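Worked example

This section walks through a single chain of length 196. The input is the sequence exactly as stored; nothing has been trimmed or padded.
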Amino acid sequence: MRNDDHRSKKIVFVSNCLLNTNNKVWGLARYGGFCREVFEVLADYGVGIQQIDCPETLHLGIQRWYHTKNLYDNVGFRRICREVSERTVDYMESYKLVGYETVAFLVCNGSPTCGYDLTSYDENWGGNTNEAFEYNDAIVPGMGVLIEEMHEAIKDRGLELPPFFGLSLDDASVPLDEIIADFKEFMTGAMARFDE
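Given that input, the structure is written out below as C-alpha cells.
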C-alpha cells in the first residue's frame, strides 16, 4: 500500500468553455481564457476539476454560428451529447470505485447545450442567417441538450445525481461579484453534504 498523499478525493465536473473560453461561440467570451474568480473558489475548497468535452465544438467546430436549443435538439446532436455524457460518467464511476466523491457539476447557464436552469430556445431561429437575432432574447428556463443527456446517463448507471450549478458568466448585466457570491453559497452547500 502506498502512503496517503494530500489529494482531497473530491471532484467537480466543469463545462469545457468555463475552463477554455476559446471554445465559445464568437462574441460570447467574456474572458481571455477562463474566469479566475470561479476557479479560486474551487481552489479554496481543494477540489479536483474534470473538464467535460464540448459537444458543440466537436459537432460544428470553433467558427459555428449561434444556435438555440431547438436547433441542436435532434437525433444526431443528442447522440454526440450522449457519447460525451457516457465518457464523463465513466470518470464519475471510476472515481467512485476508489472512494472519490463527485461534489458537483459546474455548467454554463444560457447555453443551448450546457445550461442547467437557463438555456436558449426560439422557433424563429434557423434558415436565413442574414436576419438579425438577439441571443439574449432567446434565453428561457430549462436545461441544455448535454445536461439532459448527462442526467440520463448518470441515472442509467445507478449513480447518485450530484448537485448542478449553472454559472451565468455570459450575462454581462449580472455583476461578477454577485455571480461569485451565489457560486460560493452553492459550493458551501455542496461540500456540506460530506460533513453529514
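What to look for: The chain has seven helices and six strands.
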